[in-house]
User: Fold this.
Amino acid sequence: MRDRAPGFFFAYPSQPTSLHMLLDFVAAIAAGLGAAGLMMGLRFLSGQRLPMYWVSGLAGVAMISMMVYLEYSWAGRTIEQLPEGVVVTAESQEAMWYRPWTYAKPLTLRLVAIDTRRNRHHAQQPQQVMTTVMLLGRWLPIREIPVVYDCQNQRRADLSAEVMFGDDGTLVGASWMELEENDRALAIACANMGS
Assistant:
């Protein structure tokens, strides 16, 4: 008898992405208003000698600075909030023409992680581990992909509706992808197997 690969796409507690975008927008507006208020106070103390355009100029700089800070701190804040047992295996860094500062310091907008809390083994396939790969992106919902790592043969198979398990735990209908020996995700998934 064969069983279908499990569709275990568990939900992680996270706020909707539209709420994240709204909070970032509110933070930028608050930074702009705070900077404008500070500059208006300085104008008042100087007897109106400071030019009025400094108010809007400083507000604009504060808003852009807040957005840049939020973008660059996203990866670190996200990693800190991951539960114990969820390990980041890769970061995608990008440089964009409409964000010229990213050419000096590329921006991390996507992360790949493995949820080792969900590692499962079959008694007759001890060299394989079934786990969950998580794809995290800024302003994107978390995607979870159930996978099987073959620790002995250094390969990975994504589980889908077409993949089935044989009675002895072998995967039927799986497309195996060969991995490099030093693949970080493979090392983390297989860490507790003595491989």
About this structure: The CA atoms of residues 8 and 146 lie 7 Å apart.
